[in-house]
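Minutes, structural biology subgroup

Action item carried over from last meeting: produce the C-alpha cell record for Transcriptional regulator, ArsR family (Sphingopyxis indica). EB confirmed the sequence was re-checked against the source entry. Recorded below for completeness.
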Amino acid sequence: MVEHDSLPLDTIFHALGDATRRAMLGELAAAPRSVGELAEPFAMSLAAASKHIKVLEKAGLVRREVRGRTHMCSLDPAPLMTADQWLGVYRRFWTGRLDTLEQLLRAEDAPRPPRAVFDQSGSS
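Output recorded by EB:
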C-alpha cells in the first residue's frame, strides 16, 4: 500500500473539496491566469478569490508570481500525482472487484450444455 504523510494529502483533498477551487485549477490547467481572471467567472471579489488561491497554494497546487501589481497564478500538478498515487490503491481494488463481477456475469450468461433427459423407466 502506498504510504504518505497524511498532512499533505489532507491539505490537497481539502483544497480539492471546493467546487470553486476545482474550477480554478481547471482554468490553470489550460494556462496561467491572473487573480482577476480566476475571480471573474464566479463574480467574486479579488479578496475572496485570493483566499481560495491561498488554500490552493498551501496545498502546493498553485504557484503565484507577482508581476508589478498583477498576481499571476500557475498550476503545479505534482501534488495531484501524490493524490493519484493514494487513490490508485483503491482504483486497483475496485478494478479487481469489477473484473471478478464481469467474469461471474459472463459465466452466468454463457450457454449451458443440454442436460441428459432420463425417462421414468430409468433408461436414457
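Discussion: Strands lie at 33-34, 62-67, 70-75.
Next step: EB to file the record with the rest of the batch.
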